[in-house]
Amino acid sequence: MKAIWSRYTVVLWLCVLGMAASPAWAQSREFPVSTRTLKNGMKVLVQPDHSIPNVALYIFYRIGSRNEHPGTTGLSHFFEHMMFNGAKKYGPGDLDKVMEANGGSNNAYTTQNVTVYQDWFPRSALSLIYDIESDRIRDLTFDPKKIASEREVVASERRLSVDNDNFGLLDEQLWANAFIAHPYQWPVVGWMSDIEHWTMEDLKHHFEMGYSPSNATMVVVGDVSPDEIFQLCEKFIESIPSHAPPPPVTTVEPEQLGERRLVVHKPAELPLLLIGYHIPQTNNPDYYALNILRSVLFQGESSRMYLRLVDKDQIALDVSSFVQPAFDPTLAILTVQPRQGIDPQACEKAIYEELDRVKASQISDQELEKAKNGRLVEFYREMRTISGRANTIGTYEVFMGDYNKLFDAAKNYSAVTKDDVQRVAKKYFGANNRTVATLLPEKEEKAGQ
Amino acid sequence: MTRIKRALSLLSMAGFLVLACPAVPAQSIHLPPHEKFVLKNGLTVLLMEKRGVPLINLFAIVKTGTAADPAGEEGLASVTAGLLRKGTKTRTAQQFAADFDFIGGSFDAGAGADFSNISGEFLTKDLDRGLELFCDVLLHPTFPQHEVEKILAQSLDGVKSEKDEPQSVLGLYYAGYLYGAHSYGRPSDGDEISLKRIQRDAIVKFYEANYAPGNIILGIAGEFDAAEMRKKLEERLGSWPARTVPNTAIAVTPPEKGKRLLLIDKPDATQTYFAIGNLGTAVNDPDRVAIRVVNTIFGGRFTSELNEALRVESGYTYGAGSFFDSHRAPGPFEIYSFTKNETTVPAIDLALQILEKLHKNGVTQEQLASAKSYIKGQYPPTIETSSQLVRRIVFNEFYGLGDDEVNQLEARVDAVTPEIARQVIQKHFPLENLVFVLIGKASAIGPAVKKYAEKTDARPISEPGFWPPPAAVQK
Question: What is the C-alpha to C-alpha distance for residues A162 and B271, in angstroms, rounded to an integer?
Fold first, then answer.
């Protein structure tokens, strides 16, 4: 699935989880975090950083498309939009106007697992941001006119990212086929017919279900002190009543017992290939070995898949892999952009041969070290901005259960052996475990029929 | 080289009850100290020490970009840049990849209208290795024939792939339609025709003519010692022979008169993507800060007039905005949005109404206060990392702008009044003279959009090239 559905996307009109490798970096003392759990159950993490006079404030709600049901898919994402459309003190349109007039900006994103609200602002607007956040968490309102126009906005977003986007379309089909029981089956943005039918009752119910303060983690990084943040939380957030969390998602996807295949015919210049393999949820011991394996196979132009498909055989323009943070067993998705006129099955054959190689014999010491070095640099890239840090700290806290594991990632990556990499390759990348989605260009004459 | 962009990661950018007082403390925005020196061979070097994260960022500009591509060989500068890493005197493409990937570094090279750019990033502990690799590809590329063929074929497919995503190519059609044969109208990464014409000879000539020390600005920012770095650079780059470089003149075109519309047919589109505008400004335009403030109000942020009207109030679109894309000579000004086929005309009508209102009413003191606060509050995260900082100082150097571009930003923003805004709107925001480019389903929207312009043109998206339609390759 397109992993992230957001409030707005900057489109180029012209033109993960952060990881650590060696014990030398990612010490908790480098990035001191203070925490407090408020009386209403919201956990607050604060990481002071005075290098720029700005703050990144993220709130992670543990609710996403996995908490939805057929008939009302896409509701979490729609709700995310509605969180900006009016509450008691700041009415429809006020939130953005006031925030921007005070030097701030915001966005939000929804995934299968969480909905995250992001505020970026100069520290002078700190108190105002808390006023705004508490208003909408406590007293969000639902204006029927706003529901109507926001529904159109979401439909436009779906058209942009799925209906008129070959990758988005194929990705949606892939998940729908790889999961036959579990809620990861349906798209985060929702099926178009569900988008058209959401009601105000659906929204209210969703708010009640998912937006208890006890279901949220707040992360604040930037030009602040922990004391002042905790005081603001006491003043603005702590008295917001909490209630039960969303009902647990109990559906377990049954083991996939054979390869699944699907084809999409669509007007296109180039074909497209996506292969999804079932892998465990984020908080699983194989997590680090899997990331190392994916680096060896896909990271950089010296990676095995790039060398084979792009450089040597020249049957693809691009190859990559993607895994998103997940509470439940999820997919590792391999993406291949075949060259024009290339049969995607030729790409499949090459992919499977390379996977067989990595299962049959261990990777080299050099490849292992290279992968670890790559993850190290990636970690620093994630951690060098206040917004990257807020995202990483929050993601570790929510998906690994403890932000401190961020500082354990170092030794966890160090500990990955060539054996481990071979083992996870054999365990997860077999034929029965894969769903193969292919997009084949359709001639234009057919499009009109 | 054209990259295949996939909507995997969201491009969530910060930038990218009105209260009385500005919310941002004064004098908080400034560039960290940096130094400049010029090697004997003319290479300009900018160094900025920035401690806290053990990364080093290199960013080099070659002062010749795609404007120097010979007519019919669009993509030459871009492909030349892309080939730097694909073979040197001592390394094959694969060896370079292996060496750079091993240190976890990243490397990229490409070209835009005004310049070609090369960037590298690696850990402080790998400084010597990273620098050696970077200088190797800058000084000693060999452009092996098989790599040339590979990259040209990949670039060609890359253009086709971009056409599968209308929002990725709207800007290319727009620039082409607005500028015609002028260099800013030509696609930087080439098109399906031009890429077939490019030969290894031309690439080697382009490199030899333009990649000369006197034509390059190299910036480095990050965690290192400046004195040591200077020594290393003198050693590695000091003896690169100087040579003179032809100057690429960029003609200044006058803005379009009247109204013209180009409709690019994508028969399976359920959504129309549109761009409206005219010529904009050059990077060093004296009005640039005032323009930035006004554009923030008009189309440069979530609560802009365009986004308020087309998204928030009407729900026509997920996003609408406007921007000035400035170059050495005036670049394009563009209003953009997208909407389902059925609301194409209402959305365009509305965008034009908002533009008319801007000219008629100007901007209020309140709107200015809000926009100023926004620009100042959102600026620090844009110069937070050494990667961002190195680009800032190199661009300043290239375009002849000083540190004041950053250090005086707050003061310049504060100085914009409604009267100044009015003048800037009159001078720089078009009204009667407009170019329209639409990508959408012609059979659904074609007849209805004719009303917007005296002259209309059309092309299917699957036809090679953008605009003007390229002449076929001579066999």
Answer: 11
pLDDT in tens, B238-294: 999 999 988 777 877 788 899 999 999 999 999 999 999 999 999 999 999 999 999
Q: What local confidence, expressed as pLDDT, does residue A21 receive? A: 32
Q: Which helix (H) or strand (E) holds A371?
A: helix A365-383
Neighbouring residues of B475: CB distance < 8 A, sequence distance ≥ 6: none
User: Vertex B158, ends B333 and A164: CA angle to 5°?
Assistant: 70
Query: What are the structure tokens assigned to A316, written together?
Result: 């693809």
Hey, how many other C-beta atoms are within 10 angstroms of the C-beta on B176?
24
Burial label, A362 (beta-carbon count in 10 A; 0-12, 13-18, 19+):
middle
d(CA A85, CA A100) in angstroms, rounded, equals: 15
DSSP summary character for residue B33: P
For an interface test with B, give the residue of A100, A188, A386, A413 to mutate (most B CBs within 10 A).
A100
Distance CA B48, CA B387 (A): 11
Nearest of B73, B66, B78, B60 to residue B1 by alpha carbon: B78
Is pLDDT of B450 > 90? yes
- Scan residues 304-323 of B and list those with Cβ closer than 8 Å to A: 308, 311-319, 323
Considering only CB atoms, B11 lies closest to which of A10, A268, A378, namely A10
Residue A156 to residue B316, Cβ atoms within 8 A = yes
Distance from CA of B103 to the nearest CA of A (A): 6
Q: Cβ of B5 under 8 Å from any chain A Cβ?
A: yes
Helix (H) or strand (E) holding A43: strand A43-48
Could A270 and B164 be called an inter-chain contact, meaning their C-beta atoms sit closer than 8 Å? yes
Question: What is the spatial distance between Cα A212 and Cα A11, in angstroms, rounded to a whole number?
Answer: 33
pLDDT score of A10 = 55
Q: B122 and A377: CB-CB below 8 Å?
A: yes
A6: pLDDT strictly greater than 90: no
Find chain B residues with C-beta within 8 A of A160's C-beta: 167, 271, 318, 338
Confidence check: pLDDT of A192 > 60:
yes
- Tell me which residue of B399, B86, B310, B54 sits closest to A379, measured CA to CA: B54
Is the pTM higher than 0.80? The answer reads yes
User: What is the spatial distance between Cα A260 and Cα B425, in angstroms, rounded to a whole number?
Assistant: 58
pLDDT tens digits, one per residue of A83-142: 999 999 999 999 999 999 999 999 999 999 999 999 999 999 999 999 999 999 999 999
Determine the Cα–Cα distance for residues B88 and B99; give it in Å rounded to an integer.
13
Specify the range with the lowest mean pLDDT, choosing from A151-165, B74-88, B97-111, B323-337.
Answer: A151-165
Going by C-beta distance under 8 Å and a sequence separation of 6 or more, which residues neighbour residue A99?
A105, A106, A119, A121, A125, A128, A129, A132
Q: For residue B262, what are its two tokens?
A: 């180009």
CA distance B225 to A294: 35
Q: What is the mean pLDDT of the segment spanning A260-284? A: 96
Residue A218 pairs in a beta bridge with A44, A59
Dihedral, B313, B319, B320, B326 alpha carbons, nearest 10? 150
Instruction: Centre a 10 Å sphere on the Cβ of residue B3 and count the other Cβ atoms it contains.
Output: 14
* 3-state secondary structure at position A109: strand
Residue B376 CA to residue B410 CA, distance in Å, equals 6
